[in-house]
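Weekly modeling sync, notes
Attendees: S.R. (lead), two postdocs, one rotation student

Agenda item 3: backlog of single-chain predictions. S.R. asked that every request posted to the team notebook include the full sequence so nobody has to chase files. The rotation student volunteered to paste the first one in as an example of the format we agreed on. Action items at the bottom.

Example entry:
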Amino acid sequence: MANQDHEEDWADVDGPEEGEEPEVPLSATAESASETRMIRALAEHNIGLISTQTGSFKFSAHSKWAFPGQREVHLLRGHHETLLAQLDKRVEHSAQWAGIIIPDDGFLEVLVGPNQTQLPTSIVIRRLSRLVADTLEEECPRHHDRINCESIDFARTSAGERHPKIHLTGDEVCLEISGPSPACHVLANHGFRETPRYILSVRVFHDRPMKPSQIEASAEPLLDSLLYELDVRNQLNMRPAKWPSQADRRRPLNADLPERIVRFPEIKVESEVSVLFRFAGSATGNPPLAFLSYYQVLENFFPVAGRRSALRKIELELTDPRFDRRSDKCLMRLLDVGENAAAASEASHLKILLEEFVRKDVLESFFSENPWGKHFTKQGPIKGITENINPENKQTPLAHQVAERVYRIRNRIVHAKDDPKYQNTPALLPQSDEAEALWPDIDLVRLLACEVILSAQVRS
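Predicted structure, as returned to the notebook:
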């Protein structure tokens, strides 16, 4: 969720009012020659016309969104000439973000929205409408193509407030925050009926021909810096929209049906563990945070597992018929058990915990009964994994294979990328493609947390 498209944080744009324009069949509304050319050009971008209304068009959303149910994009007919002009410029989709690129102009436009799931877009619009740029747009020394400057204003502002349009001039490039252009909206947006998912965009004007990869590479640090300063200076926490991950990277649907019977609680869970577990389930917009929260549940039981393992080893030593309490050698063996338990690394604690507290058949079923594909292999989407997880591996216990993978991912999330121990593997960043691909690993560590809580309850 790995992907960003949560229904609860959709823009709260005003929907159509009563008496809205009725939809009419295509044959009942004639398109002009330029509108017909626009429709044909959009078809080459995998955007299909659903219907024509008296004052607007309804198009299908681009297949890159790949959501269940029909998503659509509406465009007022008055914007069709600008859209056609942009399409004639050899516009194409951005590969890195949900947006468009016009290589001949060195132009990039990316849809943006609020980063907090609980923050309505109307509040972002209101705050933006009260901000001003450090220089006036009229004073910009560059002459941007006006076709790339037209905006669609979806949000209704209060009396006296203006639609946000903030033009920022740099030494070699300009940035602009406003409503999206017609091409960016139709090619990269989606919504239900007239309500679009994103009603703002950031544009990057290079004003010179560039390759798409060059445009994105140049724009990325600018966008990151702009969004950082908007957060720190202007208290606007926003994020760029990204295309959803491929289907094999999306979180699989849980095949297990939920229990319908609610019972009086029979498992006693420490408050700290319960809070961490619930929080992990709520962190749908931040997969690395969800992973870490479930991992913290496991960490709570490291001391218990370590003590239990040490006590079992001490018990074996004491019950050994060859044990002699007057022998220094035998006593040193007991001492070694205690010292090794105290000096065990976090990776060792995790292996002991999974070996002691997780049922082997449950772990095997997780890998055999779910269509994970190559996710848990070296060819999977998560970097820094040197070995496959293979339940058929007789050399390394499955619990140890899982512990190794979980610990490596944990390190990639929490350790700085300049740590010498992890210099060959970059940090696993939130909202990255890798983060969105993390859901099978989150399901795995969630299963481990459930098993450990259950086992600790039974053994207590």
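Discussion: group reviewed the output briefly. The first helix runs from residue 33 to 43.
Action items: rotation student to repeat for the remaining queue; S.R. to check formatting next week.
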